[in-house]
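Researcher: Please predict.
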Amino acid sequence: LLVFVGIYVIVCTGLSLIFGYAGQLSLTQAAFYGIGAYASALLTTRLDLSFWVGLVAAGVLPGIVAMVIGAPILRLRHFYLAMATLAFSEIMVVVFIQEVNLTGGPTGITNVPPPSVLGLSVNTSARYYYLVWTIAVLVVAFSYNLIRSKFGRALRAISDNEVAASAMGVNVAAMKGLMFVLSAIYAGVGGALYAHYISFVSPDSFSVSLSILLVIMVAVGGVQSLWGAVLGAVFMTVLPSLLGAYQQYAMLLYGLILVLVLMFMPQGIAGVGSALVARL
């Protein structure tokens, strides 16, 4: 369970940068997650390359795709941007299913090998836990320093008011594009870690519902806080395991939680925590 929490922390951190700080609602994370998973799986199974080569490719390829599609898509705003990114996610699911020779189609790719670190095979959940969380900590630390820099201030300015940010000299298009690419890289890395952990990838794992779930994670944790992405990933990943025999109602519960959070805790879990600390 903690392995999956770590993977979602990586992906949600990227979503927090583009959604929470740049103010752009993107529903492409599942698509980039899938591209990264397939890239690493194909390189390690068909070309017999190492996990680390696959991991780098899993970050680079989604980043390139995000750079290509980001130029036209990020010109849109609000609802229109969400619909455009949703359409891209649907297109990628179709590609994963139809490109049978490349992706294996609906049956996917099996026997994805476990990683190897300094000659040690990471073939147990305990070992994989340390690998995933090492990468997750590095991702969060890098992102934390990024948002505390001048780039982070520019992002918050864009989120508040694009026109005012542009008037103050912020290159709005470039900043949004950069965060879109960085969020895609994070999602691709998370996808590679997912593929090598369960040793199998298929189109079902990268549906639009995953993108929506990731947005819910960030919203519940706190949109305007990097730690909100971490808290939301932990909470929403652990929650299904607490439902027991009622897991079929998980999506219903997710929706209810999101509505209640938006009504009574608009700043999310992280916002409540910050308010309590300030009050103390």
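Model: The two ends are 33 Å apart (CA to CA).
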